[in-house]
Amino acid sequence: MIIAIDGPAASGKGTLAKRIADLWGLPCLDTGLLYRAVARDVLARGFQLEDTWAALAMARSIDLKELCDPELRTPKAGDGASIVARIQQVRAALLAYQRDFAAQPGGSVLDGRDIGTVVCPTADAKIYVTARPEVRAQRRYNEYLARSEPVTYEAILADIQKRDERDASRESAPMRPAADADLLDTSDLDIEAAFDAAVGLIKRKIGQ
Ligand code: CDP
Q1: What was the pLDDT predicted at 194?
Q2: From the CA of 77, how far away is ligand 1's center (Å)?
Q3: Mean pLDDT, residues 84-113 taken together
Q4: What is the CA(32)–ligand 1 centre distance, in A?
Q5: What is the mean predicted confidence (pLDDT) over 33-55?
Q6: Which of 3, 19, 126, 165 could staple 181 via S-S, CB 3.0–4.6 A?
Q7: Residue 101, CB half-sphere, CA atoms under 13 Å: how many?
């Protein structure tokens, strides 16, 4: 069983994906980390984020086992990720990693922006998680506070809106719900309620 969880920045799709994966005992891939790692590596080697060939070289050499670096969770990595994510060649290079991961025996859960539309168009269940930008910004702000990351609520809201705009307007695999995705607005739901709602949608899709 393959489960695709997509949605805009800080919509809570990562937390939901992990909990869903635990419930069904499936491996889980946060595909945003791949784009974040490409951005980190491009900058670490002194290249520009818009440099297609540098970004492609980094995408080709990515190591799925090295995605726990805390630096990947910073606002800088998120913003950089949405810049390299516009590059078609980078997306193509990362597609194979994601499809290999998805095709594991028993199934998998992947979260991102284009899982239901491009990476796993035949996924058994697809959920597109949204929430109002102000709610998403507040949740991300609380996360950063807990990690003592020096940011303001206003800067996070601006970052989320800029990234959403970039992600939705790019030519290659723009962020959007698949035609057969279930929409889940978590603006007024806490994590438990959002999880229960997501599980209900998945069970209905897979006929459990
Ligand atoms: O956690 P958050 O929602 O803030 O972001 P993320 O899922 O880690 O993704 C970071 C950036 O990577 C996004 O803003 C997208 O530009 C890009 N991304 C993408 O293009 N396609 C994906 N499947 C996943 C992420």
Answers
A1: 97
A2: 10
A3: 97
A4: 4
A5: 97
A6: 126
A7: 24
Which of 181, 22, 55, 54 lies closest to 114, judged by CA? 181
pLDDT at 208 over 80: no
Closest C-alpha to ligand 1, atom 6: 32
What distance in angstroms lies between residue 113's CA and the mean position of ligand 1's atoms? 6
φ and ψ of 126, to 5 deg: -135, 130
Global pTM value: 0.96
The whole-angstrom separation of Cα 9 and Cα 159 is 9
